Amino acid sequence: MTLEPGEVAVYSGWDASADAWIAVIGETGDWGRRFVLDRPMLERCHGRGFARALDIGCGEGRFCRMLAAEGMATVGIDPTGALIEQARRLHPDGDYRVEAAEATSLPDAAFDLVVSYLSLIDIADLDAAIAEVHRLLRPGGSLLIANLQSFNTAAEPLGWSHEPDGSRRFSIDHYLEIRQRLTEWQGISICNWHRPMQSYMRALLDAGFELRHFAEPAPDPDCTGPKADRYRRVPNFLIMEWQKPLGAWRDNFDPRGSLLGETGRETDPVFPQALS
Ligand SMILES: C[S@@+](CC[C@H](N)C(=O)[O-])C[C@H]1O[C@@H](n2cnc3c(N)ncnc32)[C@H](O)[C@@H]1O
């Protein structure tokens, strides 16, 4: 599959669901972000010396705003125009672009951190997106992923069922079959993807990434109640950090190329202000 910058592979429902998504995310993020993912995701970003971050599938830009608050120069990309408009409204100084992760207009090795915060499940061409992230990271840079667990996206039909004895069970089926799945909640109606874990691992390994961190976070310890109990029984999310090896110089990558323009003067097409 070959995509031009900004082209989206298949209908996803995100345009029609943008208003509902913005309402669900609100100012603090939804339950899973607030009580499970935000803290460990930010911990992986904090104090690491990351200066330039790209968020693929940034949505309405919440995590970009959090990284900007950490002092990073950020770019957020997302093919859903209404979400990018909202990101620009909420963060007028930010850099938000309507682009798909599979093929961007961004230059080689421009970032030392790329984040995919619950967006790999929504990206149609996983292999293309991972190869593109590899191109966009500088050698030694990190790809930080929060994703739904593959056993979660294989849940049939809703995951949790009530047993005759009143207990609850989580069931999955057709785990190895890659497929699009319609998901609907709180006015949001989207098609994302179920892929077995091996699809993600193969795509990342084949692209040349090295795994540096893996976690299956539970809700924060002070978060209690039936929903937290369910999340502890079946952890919905995983977090991975993958590194582009320091020796991974691409054939077409001049180590000075992203910093030096044709004139030899320092230029940077993504962050011109960062080098002035
Ligand atoms: C579950 S939302 C997550 C948004 C944001 N990262 C967050 O955590 O709030 C998934 C996002 O992936 C975006 N998306 C869908 N297809 C994409 C693609 N091919 N490339 C990049 N993002 C995509 C959707 O528009 C949507 O904003």
Folded structure, characterized:
The chain has 276 residues and is of the alpha/beta class. It has a single domain, classed as Rossmann fold (3-Layer(aba) Sandwich). It has a seven-stranded mixed β-sheet with strand order 3-2-1-4-5-11-10. The protein has a two-stranded antiparallel ribbon with strand order 6-7. Helix 5 links the parallel strand 4 and strand 5. The chain binds S-adenosylmethionine. S-adenosylmethionine binds next to helix 1 and helix 3.
Summary of the model, kept short:
The protein has one domain (14-149, 194-265): Vaccinia Virus protein VP39 (Rossmann fold). It is 29% helix and 26% strand. It contains eight helices and eleven strands.
Provide the list of bound ligands, each named once.
S-adenosylmethionine
- Number of distinct beta strands: 11
Q: From the coordinates shown, what is the CATH architecture? A: 3-Layer(aba) Sandwich
> Treating each run of at least 4 consecutive H or I residues as one helix, how many helices?
8
Compute the number of structural domains: 1
- Specify the structural class: alpha/beta
CATH topology: Rossmann fold
Shape designation: globular
In terms of per-residue confidence, which ranges show pLDDT below 50 for 5 or more consecutive residues? 251-266
β-sheet strand percentage: 25-35%
Please bin the fraction of helical residues: 25-40%
Q: Summarize the main sheet.
A: 7 strands, mixed
The helix/strand series, from N terminus to C terminus, equals HHEHEHEEHEHEEEEHEHE
